[in-house]
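Item description
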Amino acid sequence: MPTYEAPVADTLFILNELLGIDRYNNLPRFSDASPDVVEAIIGEAGRFAAEVFFPLNQSGDAEGCHRAEDGSVRTPEGFKEAYAQFRDSGWGTISTDPDFGGQGLPHTLSAAVNEFLSSANMALAMYPGLTRGAIAAIETHGDAIQKGRYLPKMIEGTWTGTMNLTEPHCGTDLGLLRTRATPKPDGTYALSGQKIFISAGEHDMAENIVHLVLARIDGAPAGTKGISLFIVPKFIVNEDGSLGARNGVSCGSIEEKMGIHGNATCVMNYDEATGYLIGEADKGLRAMFTMMNEARLGVGIQGLAISEIAYQNAVTYARDRVQGRSLSGTKAPEKAADPIIVHPDVRRMLMTMRSINEAGRALVLWTALRGDLSHLASEEKEREAADDWMGLMTPVIKGVLTDKGFENAVLAQQIYGGHGYVREWGMEQFVRDARIAQIYEGANGIQALDLVGRKLALNGGRALQAFFKEVGAFCEDNRADEALAPLTKPLKKGLNDLQAATMWLMQNAMAKPDNAGAASTDYMHLFGLVALGYMWGRMVKVAQEKLAQGANGHSAFYENKLVTARFFMDRLMPETAAHLARISSGADSMMTLNADAF
């Protein structure tokens, strides 16, 4: 049976020592995030995730969701009660607007809590996770009536939310969507069409479900320019806030999926359902992308979360499982064989997982902090720089951390050998659950294209140049520090490879766009390695300072940071050179074969 313990100490290290979020206590939302409040939230969230969400993970996977003939959906046993505890404990209110019932704390804290919940039970955590994105879209683009009507109940958790984009004939290419919205005399719209892959589209845990639906108003232009966004509640909300008639939206079926069985992934049918335009007509994608960007960062956290729980269980197994003797001499003479954790190849897999997880957690929270600062910083330049970082890192976090999350779940499964293939040990569920994160909210190839085709050149390359400058300055400022040299030298080499890859794209992608497409995934992962390496550089600098000050009895924690960072730089950072070589090879060998030759 698998186990889970939230990485509370590591998260607090990042929040308090790496980010130093108490430095921002002069800003709105941060003023109440004192170190003791942060420690209390993170500690209690870790306990809640381990004690309430995690015990339902395997059973929820085995039972799945069930649709009745009337279209209603029953979630796995225990999910409804666990969600009620989540709601009543206020976990969904941490970083939401106090004007509508939220606690008004930084989103950075919600990101940390989200990791714990997703590790403990990814399928269950998705229900409130999707609601956060819907809240963000209504907050940003809704009018005063819509905010007042929907946000209090959604923030409270009494109502949940979804996003409805994909249709049977179109996925990422939303310009092909066919769901139509017909204007009605009262100013509302009648929506008709079908959406697929709608996570949490129907369930028994909330009084109402608020669907955000992309549709085309009758007579609107073809393509993405004619798409609008609508609020379509499961039950009509009366002017006094009470629930009225059932709307014309229903679950036609539940997808039979590879993983996340505890989450109801629905085919949703809209039959002249009453919808309310949110934002401007024909400008729906702008509004939806508020929700999409929130979701993409959340999915990146899911990749990290599954990697973390898979790693924890692989470590436990490797300590207990005995097989063979150490190549350097017997380590457990009292046993018939040594624990497999002594073997270098097992260590290779464990250290790979550990080094990515710790740097990935830092990158997620570093980026979440930039998200907060993009709204709350007092200076326009600081808000702009923070927003630039967010835009640049969103596809990297989503694409790289979910790719690595799946790879690490497979590595953990490999450590178990045959037991990793057997359901009772839990590892095969982690592999199945991790796989979806590479696909939804924009498949990772789309994230790579977004990075290369749009984010690099945005605002004249301002965000990219700022990233180069920030990482380069860190390497230069610490160049004379011999203790940091094992990190700064390979980090600078990785940065050089990233800059060379960028220059190659500038010189070769405009005239031949296939070069950009062929390079995009390698470029995203090259970028990710440098970003993760930069996090390791920053963490090691803090760890060395703490050790020099005596470490307050936590020397082992900081020393382990130094060792893990060294592994990352020795074994993973050199992959930047291979990515650069593949990028520089261009698209010819990839694109020459005729389609019918495959």
DSSP finds 18 helices and eleven strands in the chain. The mean pLDDT is 95.
